[in-house]
Every structure is written in structure tokens, then in C-alpha cells.
């Protein structure tokens, strides 16, 4: 029994090495939601300082906060923008609520002051007192005189007959209130034996608002004035 050991061929090629799998990159990717959270939170933060707009800024900040939290929960994503967006959005929410309350309280205070001022002015106008003087002058000894006053929703009429002239009637009345309209009227007539002149005059707060003159038996004069908060129109 014989065995032979054959040496390997001298020129036989060696097998080529098999390449291994490509290395996997482990770096973190960008975070689009984090950037969006920062942008939305920035707009909300600016809007928080603007009156009226800060009511909406709180809801915008809430959207930015949700985006920021979701961005923080994403794996293998950069967290820098997400953290910044979350913080800015949270600050915007707190500021929008605080400033909204502050602005509202300030506006309510201004309105309240304006209402109190208007009420005080209205009360002052309602209690305004004015002086009214009715005058009838002439030579008559048997004149008939009628005068009426309408102020603050109240009407009053007085009459005098067989009156010798001159005739003067002074009144102090209230003007303004819920009914601002005022009216004053004075009528005088000579008697049958009175052939001279007769004249009427109405004075309101030292201002002559109406006057008239007539002559002869049964001569008649009529003075009247009306307006708002005193007298603005003479007749």
C-alpha cells in the first residue's frame, strides 16, 4: 500500500476577502417639529404683549407647546429647537393670560371711571337751578296776566287779573334731568280803560330771552322761549 502526497500547486490563486456590511451612521437627524414649535411660540410671545391679540396668543402658544412636547418625544432627533420651542411657548401662554387680565382690568377701570363721571355730570345737570323773571310794564291799571313754566318734566301756570303795572314775578326752577326741555311763556292784555302801552319780558339767568310791546285798549303782548337745558330758542 502506497500513498502519495502531492504538493499544492505553486501558482494556485488565494480566495478574495468578502467585504463586510457598511457601517451604520448613528448621528441624530434634524427636528422639524422642534423648529415649528419655536416659530409658533415666538409669534405667540410677540402677540402676548398686544392688547386684544393676546387673547388669541394663548391658543397659539398652546399649539407651540404641543408641537414642542411631541418633538421632544421623537427618537434620534435633535432636541435643541424642541426644548427652546417648548419653553418659549409656555412663557407665551403665561404672559398672554397675565397681560389679558391686566389689560381687561385696566379697560374696565377706564370704563367705570367714565360712567361715574357721566353719572356725576348728569346728576349735576339734573340739579341745575336757573332764575326766571317775568315782567310786564306799562301804564295799565286793569291788566290780565298769565305766565307758565315747564322745566324738568313739570308744568306750572299762574294767572293774575285786574293787575296794576308794573308786574314782576321771580322764580327759581330746576333744569336738566331726564327731561331737558324747558319752556317759558308770558301773556299780558290791557283792560278796556287802559289805552297806554303794555310790554312783556322774560329773563333767564340774567339773559333777556323774549320781549314784546303793544299799545291801546285790549292790547295784548306775548313772550315765550323754549330750549334744552335752559333756553336756546326765543319766540
Automatic annotation (TrEMBL):
Region entry Disordered, spans: 1-21
Database matches in Gene3D superfamilies: MmpS1-5, C-terminal soluble domain
Keywords: Cell membrane, Membrane, Transmembrane, Transmembrane helix
InterPro entries membership: MmpS, MmpS_C
Bias-annotated ranges (Polar residues): 1-12
Stretches that traverse the bilayer: 32-50, 56-74, 81-103
Subcellular location: Cell membrane
Record family assignment: Belongs to the MmpS family.
Protein name per Swiss-Prot or TrEMBL: Membrane protein
Biological classification of the source: Bacteria, Bacillati, Actinomycetota, Actinomycetes, Micrococcales
